[in-house]
Amino acid sequence: MFKIEESYYINKTFRLKAELIEKLYTIAQNKEVSLNNLVKQALEYAIKHMEE
Q: How is the chain split into domains, by residue range?
């Protein structure tokens, strides 16, 4: 059976150094993904691989 899954998102503002934003923006452009998608994936990866 086809099931539609809903996602719940929250908008949040973070302050990051300009140099980091520039690096992220460049990576996003080179990989042809949105900046938002890149940051989301990077955070998910960091949390998954974080030492406890």
A: 18-48
